[in-house]
Specification:
Layout lengths: L21 E5 L1 H8 L1 E2 L11 H10 L1 E2 L6 H9 E10 L17 H10 L6 H10 L3 E9 L10 H12 L8 H7 L3 H7 L13 H12 L8 H17 L6 H23 L1
Antiparallel strand pairs: 1-5, 2-3, 4-5
Helix pairs in contact: 6-10
C-alpha cells in the first residue's frame, strides 16, 4: 500500500497522472487469496469496462478464511481479472506431477460454487491442487475512483488490520464505539445494526465505516488515534524513528520488507 504514496503529494500521487497496468503470473492459491475467495475463473478476451470489473468483484464468493488485511486492502485499492490460464509445461523447470489429460477447468469452478456452503480449509486446499498444473495470467491496475481518503495510509492500515483480526462473528459497532463513544448511533443511521458482524461487511462497508470514523468531530481525540500511534511507535522501536506521514509510512514499510528478505536469506544459507 505504501507504493501508492510519495512525499510531494499526500494523495494518491504515484498513480495521480497514470495508472500502471500489471500482467502477473500467479498460482491459483495466490489468485484466490488476493481476491479473498473464489473469483471469476472465466478468462476475458477483451478488456472489461469499469462496470464489468465492479460486477466481477461483487460476484466473488468471499471465504472468511481468506479475508485477511491484505485481501481487504487489495480489493479496496485494485481491480483485477483473469486473462488466461497457462499450462505449467510452458515453464522451466518442469514439474514432475503434471497431469497428462486435458481438464475441464470451467466445470471444476461450477463444482466449487455448488459446494460453496461446505467449503473448508481442507476442501480449498484440494481446489488448489486441482489447478496446480496451471498458472493464472492476471491483469491488475489501481482503481480509478477509490472512494476513500488516502492522505493517511497508517490510519487506513490500522483500521483494516483491526477489523480483519477479529472473528467473523464479532460485532462491528462495539469496536467503533470503543474508538469514539456514541458513534454507534451514527452507524445505525447509516444502515448498520448492533448485530452486524465482521463476516457480513463487504469492501464498500469498510469504506463507509472508515469515512464515518475519520470524519467524526472527535476523531483526532479518539482512542483510534492512540492505537494508531502505538502501532507506529512499535514500528519505530524496530525500524528507527519515522514520522506518520505518507513518506514516513512508505520508508518504514520498505525497511520492514528488506528486513524480512534478509532474514529469509539467512535461513536459506
Amino acid at each position: 500500500m505504501s507504493w501508492l504514496y510519495s512525499s510531494q503529494n499526500p494523495k494518491l500521487s504515484f498513480f495521480k497522472d497514470s495508472r500502471p497496468e500489471y500482467f502477473l503470473l500467479m498460482t491459483m492459491k495466490t489468485f484466490f487469496q488476493i481476491n479473498g475467495g473464489v473469483p471469476s475463473l472465466t478468462p476475458w478476451k477483451k478488456k472489461p469496462t469499469e462496470t464489468e470489473l465492479k460486477q466481477m468483484k461483487d460476484d466473488t464468493i468471499l471465504l472468511p478464511m481468506m479475508m485477511v488485511k491484505n485481501s481487504y486492502l487489495f480489493r479496496l485499492l485494485f481491480d483485477c481479472y483473469l486473462v488466461d490460464m497457462i499450462p505449467r509445461r510452458g515453464f522451466i523447470p518442469w514439474r514432475t506431477n503434471l497431469e497428462d489429460d486435458e481438464v475441464d477447468l470451467q466445470m471444476r469452478l461450477e463444482d466449487v460454487k455448488k459446494n460453496f456452503s461446505s467449503l473448508s480449509s481442507h476442501s480449498v486446499k484440494n481446489i488448489y491442487q486441482q489447478y496446480e498444473d496451471h498458472l493464472m495470467l492476471v491483469y491488475i491496475r489501481p482503481k480509478s475512483e477509490l472512494g476513500v481518503e488516502l492522505s493517511d495510509p497508517a490510519s487506513l492500515d490500522y483500521f483494516v488490520d483491526t477489523l480483519a483480526r477479529k472473528s467473523a462473528t464479532a460485532t462491528v459497532l462495539p469496536t467503533l464505539e470503543n474508538w469514539i463513544s456514541g458513534m454507534g448511533i451514527q452507524l445505525i443511521n447509516l444502515g448498520y445494526s448492533v448485530f452486524t458482524t465482521v463476516g457480513e461487511i463487504q469492501c464498500q462497508d469498510l469504506l463507509k465505516l472508515y469515512q464515518a470514523l475519520i470524519n467524526h468531530p472527535n476523531f483526532h481525540n479518539s482512542t483510534f488515534q492512540a492505537g494508531r500511534d502505538t502501532m507506529l511507535k512499535y514500528i519505530n522501536v524496530r525500524e528507527g524513528k519515522i514520522d506518520s506521514s505518507a513518506e514516513g509510512f512508505e520508508v518504514t514499510m520498505l525497511k520492514m520488507r528488506n528486513e524480512k528478505k534478509r532474514k529469509r536469506s539467512k535461513i536459506m544459507k
